[in-house]
Amino acid sequence: xxxxxxxxxxxxxxxxxxxxxxxxxxxxxxxxxxxxxxxxxxxxxxxxxxxxxxxxxxxxxxxxxxxxxxxxxxxxxxxxxxxxxxxxxxxxxxxxxxxxxxxxxxxxxxxxxxxxxxxxxxxxxxxxxxxxxxxxxxxxxxxxxxxxxxxxxxxxxxxxxxxxxxxxxxxxxxxxxxxxxxxxxxxxxxxxxxxxxxxxxxxxxxxxxxxxxxxxxxxxxxxxxxxxxxxxxxxxxxxxxxxxxxxxxxxxxxxxxxxxxxxxxxxxxxxxxxxxxxxxxxxxxxxxxxxxxxxxxxxxxxxxxxxxxxxxxxxxxxxxxxxxxxxxxxxxxxxxxxxxxxxx
Length: 344
What we know:
Elements: E1 3-5, H1 11-21, E2 28-34, E3 42-47, E4 50-56, H2 69-79, E5 89-93, E6 103-107, H3 124-143, H4 160-175, H5 181-192, E7 202-204, E8 213-215, E9 222-225, E10 232-234, H6 236-244, H7 263-266, H8 271-282, H9 290-314, H10 320-327, H11 330-342
Antiparallel strand pairs: 1-2, 2-3, 3-4, 4-6, 5-6, 7-10, 8-9
Domain Aminoglycoside phosphotransferase: 31-257
InterPro entries: ACAD10-like (IPR052898), ACAD10_11_N (IPR041726), Aminoglycoside_PTrfase (IPR002575), Kinase-like_dom_sf (IPR011009)
Protein name: Phosphotransferase
């Protein structure tokens, strides 16, 4: 992860605040913004005593319930004693006057972040091990008892997909620049094809993908799962289907998916193999309505990207140029979802 200098942190206020509230922080030396990320700006904080990571809400007008860095802090703190690998969080600041918005500080985890799902720098056996680790960590998350870690009230149990379709439709409409017929058709289909609630409830990450993880410097072990902004109580298949979109996304361009590549030659499991492995780890026999879960995942990602696009146009995006490119992919996301529906 490369870092780029930024002037978006008020160092004169931030330095004394961190020295007073973060244990063994020392004195602030520098704050650099990581180039990756579109939602909550993230900074590498260097002090006289070490390195830390600061994640903040972006400045400017924001959509309701978006950029919930306080929820990220809460769930990572709760998962610290589980089998789910998370960074150690150190402090949450809810006082907007310090740097202009809410933020939290966590430990800096040294390791590898893979930005391309094809893992071109690795060998086939290494790739398979990486995907196995992701699968195991996802199953571990969904096995956590929310009540046992103090997260029984982290979301509303039941009717997850019905509520999510309504929520993301509202978010999409709030960010809509011009009509996209495929999105309108997709929303209509999701409402009409809504499966009955099966009663399954778990903690869900909400953005479970390979570039939101830090792996050990050499090996396949996950040291930390990052970016918990969209986490909630939900249905575990939402996370699984969201990650499985990667198998269908284009292998070239911004998404760097696995579409069209020779999975066997790469040593990467097929979508069916990955789902089967997850089911074995989770004790699930059969997944019904798989096309719905995939279509919902494409819709949700499209709605998120539309929000990123709107923030880029408004000048509030963490990476405006990339945000505009992501926004241009919204029609493609909707078309891919509709193709899943047609081929079911």
